Amino acid sequence: MKIAIMSRKKALYSTRRLIEAGEQRGHEVQVVDTLRCYMNIASHKPAIHLKGQPLEGFDAVIPRIGASITFYGTAVLRQFEMMGVWPLNESVAISRSRDKLRSLQLLARKGIGLPITGFAHSPDDVDDLIKMVNGAPLVIKLLEGTQGIGVVLAETKQAAESVIEAFMGLKANILVQEFIKEAGGADIRCFVIGDKVVATMMRKAKAGEFRSNLHRGGTAELIKITPEERSTAVRAANVMGLNVAGVDILRSNHGPVVMEVNSSPGLEGIEHATGKDIAGMIIDFLAKEAKPNKTRTRGRG
């Protein structure tokens, strides 16, 4: 198979591991710098060019699209789909999962456990918004934030009002969520491929921090999850339409609640914590599933 990996840098751990796993299995792998790609949109024959040359003959594409380039990255991926190239995760599914508000609404509609979440536009509604999520302490999140950036824990009602009003004053879109105190600053990353959770790790926040992201100094360790947590992770990935996803779950007093569904989950933390060849599992799944023109959306939607 000829596989394209949409990534800004070959040296990134996840990209490097996918190249290694693909080549070990006899596939031809090419890294495509997403932002260097350009397209003729109006052409009768969809095409993508890179450095003066058309990108041709690919059987499958693995999108590793950073959150900051979601708009352009999904446009390039749609063009691959229109060319009949099979995507590991489809453009529509990635866009769906990157929109925090839309993804939570879709998960709620399917009855998947979530923290109580509020969303408002007017600063006049702040008082009721805080009551809606059971008061302080509560978590305030920028809709566009990633890796723990733009996430604030407000420990008092006064602090919550100040932070919410400040964000609203900047015209920023925010979510307000109940703080799951019983989780103790730890969350569970479930790595889903297809209809299976293939690896899990618990991420714990460093002392004095409530965000468990490894990029923010959190630590990771192997953990065994319950059947309910396993089912929740798989269902959440399926609702988003993702073949490969990192589903972040908190253990609350009322069962597992989903914090986020990540469409480009990093491999470094989970491979080191579990000792599993996740990159190899992704390539094996892709080799089994990839068929020309099998994309459900064909670039539509």
Structure description:
By secondary structure, the chain is of the alpha+beta class. It has 9 helices and 16 strands. The chain folds into 3 domains: 2-95, Rossmann fold; 117-179, Dna Ligase, domain 1 (2-Layer Sandwich), CATH 3.30.1490; 182-284, D-amino Acid Aminotransferase, Chain A, domain 1 (2-Layer Sandwich). The mean pLDDT is 89. Strand 12 (186-193) and strand 13 (196-204) form a beta hairpin.
* Assigned CATH class of the largest domain: Alpha Beta
Give the structural class: alpha+beta
Shape estimate: globular
Cα Rg: 20 Å
CATH architecture of the largest domain: 2-Layer Sandwich
Assign a percent range to the helix content. Answer: 25-40%
CATH homologous superfamily caption of the largest domain: ATP-grasp fold, B domain
Largest sheet: 5 strands, antiparallel
Strand content: 25-35%
Number of strands: 16
Counted up, domains total 3
Distance between the termini: 28 Å
Question: What is the topology?
Answer:
Elements: E1 2-6, H1 13-24, E2 28-32, E3 37-39, E4 48-50, E5 53-54, E6 60-63, H2 70-82, E7 86-87, H3 91-98, H4 100-109, E8 117-118, H5 126-132, E9 138-142, E10 151-154, H6 157-169, E11 174-178, E12 186-193, E13 196-204, E14 219-222, H7 227-240, E15 244-252, E16 255-262, H8 268-274, H9 278-289
Parallel strand pairs: 1-2, 1-6, 6-7
Antiparallel strand pairs: 3-4, 4-5, 8-11, 9-10, 9-11, 12-13, 12-15, 13-14, 15-16
Helix pairs in contact: 1-9, 2-3
